[in-house]
Amino acid sequence: MMGLASKLTGSVLVSLAVCAPVAAVTCEISPQSVSFDNYDTLAPQPLDGIGNIAVICDSETTFTISLDSGSGSYAARRMSSGTQDLGYNLYTDASRMMVWGDGSAGSGAVTNTGRIVNQAIYGRIAPLQFIAAGTYGDQIVVTISY
Fold first, then answer.
1. In terms of residue numbers, what domain contains 35?
2. Structure pTM?
3. Does residue 101 belong to any structural domain of this protein?
4. 37 Cβ partners below 8 Å, 6+ apart?
5. How many whole angstroms separate alpha carbon 124 and alpha carbon 107?
């Protein structure tokens, strides 16, 4: 049973979408995937990971970053490997209290001001999920509005 733990890996691929009204300001986002170490199906504690979204604007501006729910919902995102699902979620804060979404279904978006901003994405996989060994993944669309 212990052998499964060392073969489970996961990551969340973050892609982007940009929503902006016609304005003088231009912003670009460069999301980095949230990666997790090997998941131990018998560990009683969750497994945390971290990623980043870099935002570069040509002048200081206020913007909001939203994430879609990927596979699953804001309450229960899912990474998959074949027919297997691994529950996880993404958060706006290091304490992993506020689910990062678009402001709906109890989720929150992140609003920031600046010209160059690196915004961390905090991930967590729930403990004690008895799943098969494999590489698990999900795709999240990132939207910046300014």
1. 2-128
2. 0.83
3. yes
4. 9, 47, 49
5. 15
Identify the CATH number of the domain in which residue 61 sits: 2.60.40
Place of tokens 């999900």: 138
Query: Do the Cβ atoms of 8 and 128 come closer than 8 Å?
Result: no
| Number of domains observed in the structure of the chain | 1
Collapsing DSSP to helix, strand or coil, 5 comes out as: helix
8 A C-beta contact, residue 29 and residue 13: no
Query: How do the pLDDT tens digits run along the chain, 146 residues long?
Result: 222 232 344 555 556 555 555 557 899 999 999 999 999 999 999 999 999 999 999 999 999 999 999 999 999 999 999 999 999 999 999 999 999 999 999 999 999 999 999 999 999 999 999 999 999 999 999 999 99
Q: Is residue 141 part of a domain?
A: no
Within 10 A of 9 (CB to CB), how many other CB atoms are there? Answer: 16
